[in-house]
Amino acid sequence: MHLRTILIVLCGLLSFYANAHTYYSLNTEHEKLGQGFEQELGIPLESCLDGQWQFQGGSMGDLAYRGDFDSDTMINTITGSVKAGINLVIFGGSAKFSMRRKVTKNRNSAASAVELTYEKGSYNFENRTTKPAFVELLSTDPTQVRNRCGDSFIHNIKLGSRIYVTAKLHFKDRTKYEWFQTKIKVKFLFFSKTFTKTKVFQEATKDAVYTIQVNTDGGMTPELARLSKNGTIHCKTDNLTPCITYADNLFSYLLDGGEYVDDLKDEHLNVLKYEVESYEDSGHYDLAYAGHTALSNRYIALSARLRSYQDLVYDEIERLSAFKAVSEDPLEIEQLTARISARNTQRIGLEQAGEYCATLPGTTLCENRIESAIANVD
């Protein structure tokens, strides 16, 4: 069965909830069926319910080209629905959060992505009961229950795979990037071996680096792992052949006529997204009316501030690494290596601040840790 023509097959009726909201999975340890959830913050908490997983069936496939694709559009496209613009778990999921930058354009890089998505189906959380420990705690400290359980729970997860093959042009500075965008207006950055570069294109990209990379939310079959084992392929724009050959090999395997669909097994699938339902709508009134949350909305603003600096650092590491990969100047390589090392130190500091804040230590402590990490970003 070809990837472009995978048909939707319903093996049963899917459950839909009028007040459910969909979130892009960052694959943190808390994104599981039955996990408590605070919708105001968009953050998974503790699991306060016991229950059973029930497979809902259904499978579907999709192929999409994402040209001139920014990271916010990517997130909004793949979630399906967003609650008040908040669809990322605050603080958590650094690896997946940075991945969205790798497949989209950024401050100094143009990008085109081919996205291949397969959804096996979904699981619901049924026959639910409140865990005995929380039943007991409700009678003595209902506010603690609310802060640990939230106002909702994850009732549905969707398993599948999502692969991005991304072509990028990295520029040394934003001025050259903007000039390229204005003069060339190329939206599709996958080139064929017969691609003939115009003088204007050559002038606009002579100092740029062209790359092809694969990023996945599940779907890394053994053959795809073999094809992509060398990571991102970097090319100078006066010799695109290695990158074009790599892309051709990937698409020969992934698209029509390839073997990817036949190779894809359950063990290659991940949670792509999940839906939450309120305790009130599900009839768990003991948890729904447990008390008022003490979790501050200030966490949302702190998370957004942290993410903006993480974006800056992630983008810079990718750009510097691209130029280092094609450089033949020992002094330039040394300088780029030092700069990448410094940026990686900054990246680790920001990630550690996020991990600390994910424990919800209090907004003052969280803010202090974030500001301390940001102070090291130049």
Automatic annotation (TrEMBL):
Protein name in UniProt: Uncharacterized protein
Annotated keywords: Signal
Organism phylogeny: Bacteria, Pseudomonadati, Pseudomonadota, Gammaproteobacteria, Alteromonadales
Signal peptide bounds: 1-20
Species for this entry: Pseudoalteromonas maricaloris
